[in-house]
Specification:
alpha+beta; five-stranded antiparallel beta sheet; five-stranded mixed beta sheet; 59% helix; disordered C terminus
């Protein structure tokens, strides 16, 4: 009898499981199971579903000794474990009232109704134990075993006469306990498969989003315009199965790729209320029909879309739109993908804007440093020419020509970078003015390795301030004068530039103060040169200063080939 009952319950459970599996494939049921926050209405729906499973278990029961061996408890216990106390209590109440009402006054009617309600309620309370973790199939098997044994105790306690209850329990306790516990475990496996499917979809979606973001980064870092929007939309279209992809700004279409591109053209104002709502409310919106798409072209095939806003700070700068040709065909996966891509695009555009602003700021700082140097040199040059003009007007005229040529080259077309050879010519013009002042006290030498200065671009006035400091602070204080040597040498990694003098040198304290920017204001040339070198070429190009008191000073800087602008690749015109 026991084996026969076991086989029959198992066969009925198979039908039960098939129904549960088919239900688990519906979008509505998946949505209810996957939601983290379930509303009261949705809890009632879940209670009706699992209560109905309890009723089904009753009707699929096997009559025995005036009672039913059944799988009613499977549905309500699952309801309690998954939905919590509310779902457990309500589904248990539905199934238990049905069991009592179909056999009022029956031998086990009250006992089975009480046990069903008790099992469902306890399962709802056990749900709290797994609220922050996942319920495994073996948890379900253990809970099912405990609940079914509890049901046997309730039957023995309530059903009368006791002798009849005992005979019933002796036959049904093992088949019902084993089969129903297995049913609960199988049901949990079915539910667990819904979560695993969601995880797989999420992983694929994340990979797809990252692939798209990686490929679009090159274009979006240049800002949101028709070209970058088209490239981004084309990448999304090629990598997904959407019928069309569009990107807009806050007024017009920037790009449309796919179905409808013959009339959804770049530059056209968008007409969809859905797009306007996404911009106004700063959240995704759905268009589920052709009417909501609101295209004026009668032959337009697009009938549903998800529109996600592109954000910059607290404002909206545009929208990403994913289209399908079937109405009401946008799924939760489509919505999440649109939101994820829109978020990544927004981040890329914000980073691009920040990067561009950083470049503009660095450029402004470089120009400010350069502007500080020009009047500094001009002031010294004019003083020198004034001094020479008192002695020899012809020499003064020649020096004025040198000075005008110097500034003509330096200020022409607002150059940001100039050839290193031109910098050397600037220095020669400067030294011609200074030699007119110091005469035999100032000697100069240029050691320029062949080819070392050709085709190399550097910031303007990067070399002259170093030579000026050598003359002013090294040679001038020395009674007998001295020599300034300018060297340009090539190495395997770049070009080394050095300015050396055999003047009075500096004390260690003075040298440290200069390196810490704590020296006097007349050393501003060194600080500015150092700032511009670091801005253009990085820290490895900062000034390297060595000096010995009464022996002289050497100032060097290095331009690495890896960061060196060369003529032909850099626009140094207006």
């Amino acid at each position: 009898m026991t084996f026969h009952l076991l086989v029959n319950l198992a066969s009925r459970l198979g039908v039960f499981v098939i129904i549960a599996f088919l239900l688990s494939q519906t979008a509505t049921f998946k949505k209810l199971i996957l939601k983290r926050e379930v509303s009261l209405g949705e809890k009632i729906i879940l209670s009706l579903i699992f209560g109905s499973f309890g009723i089904l278990g009753t009707y699929m029961g096997i009559p025995i000794y005036g009672a039913l061996a059944n799988s009613r408890a499977v549905g309500v216990i699952i309801g309690g474990l998954l939905g919590g106390p509310f779902v457990g209590v309500l589904s248990g109440l539905i199934a238990s009232l049905h069991r009592w009402s179909i056999d009022i006054g029956g031998f086990t009617a009250i006992a089975c109704a009480v046990s069903t309600f008790t099992e469902a309620t306890l399962a709802g309370l056990i749900h709290k134990r797994f609220e922050n973790g996942k319920i495994r199939w073996w948890h379900g098997f253990a809970v099912g075993t405990f609940m079914e044994l509890l049901q046997m105790i309730i039957i023995l306690t309530i059903a009368k006469p006791f002798s009849a209850a005992w005979e019933l329990v002796k036959v049904i306790w093992f088949p019902m306990t084993f089969v129903n516990s297995c049913g609960i475990a199988i049901f949990i496996l079915i539910i667990d498969n819904i979560f695993k499917e969601q995880e797989r979809v999420g992983a694929l979606q994340a990979k797809l989003s990252l692939d798209i973001a990686s490929e679009t980064l090159t274009y979006l870092r240049k800002g949101l315009n028709e070209l970058s929007a088209y490239k981004a939309a084309k990448i999304i279209f090629d990598k997904t199965d959407y019928d069309a992809v569009a990107i807009t700004d806050i007024e017009k279409i920037l790009a449309h790729v796919g179905k409808g591109e013959d009339h959804h053209k770049a530059g056209y104002n968008f007409m969809t209320k859905t797009t306007k709502d996404a911009i106004n409310f700063k959240e995704y919106k759905l268009a589920t029909s052709k009417e909501e798409i609101n295209c004026t072209e009668p032959s337009c095939p697009l009938e549903s879309a998800v529109v996600a806003p592109l954000l910059e700070g607290d404002g909206v700068i545009g929208c990403l739109k994913l289209y399908k040709v079937r109405p009401n065909s946008i799924t939760s996966i489509d919505i999440k993908l649109a939101q994820g891509l829109a978020h990544m695009f927004s981040t890329q555009l914000e980073l691009a804007k920040a990067e561009n602003q950083a470049k503009l700021l660095a450029n402004a700082e470089r120009r400010a440093l350069q502007a500080q140097i020009n009047p500094h040199f001009l002031f010294n040059a004019i003083n020198t020419i004034i001094s020479v003009s008192r002695k020899n007007s012809d020499d003064a005229r020649k020096l004025l020509i040198d000075l005008s040529e110097f500034f003509r080259k330096n200020l022409s077309a607002g150059m940001e970078l100039v050839p290193l050879e031109q910098e050397i010519e600037h220095v020669k013009a400067y030294l011609s003015i200074e030699q007119a002042r110091f005469g035999e006290r100032l000697k100069t030498e240029f050691i320029v390795e062949s080819g070392a200065a050709s085709s190399i671009l550097v910031p303007p006035l990067i070399l002259q301030p170093l030579v000026e400091n050598a003359v002013k602070h090294g040679i001038m204080p020395k009674q007998e004068g001295g020599k300034v040597t300018i060297k340009i040498e090539s190495t395997n990694q770049g070009v080394m530039v050095s300015v050396e003098d055999d003047g009075v040198g500096m004390s260690e304290e003075m040298l440290e103060n200069i390196k810490k920017h704590q020296a006097s204001k007349d050393r501003i040339g060194l600080w500015n040169v150092n700032g511009r070198l670091e801005s253009y070429f990085g820290k490895e190009s900062c000034l390297d200063i060595h000096s010995k008191h009464k022996l002289g000073t050497v100032v060097k800087f290095f331009i690495p080939y890896s960061r060196m602008p060369v003529m032909g690749r850099e626009n140094h015109g207006a």
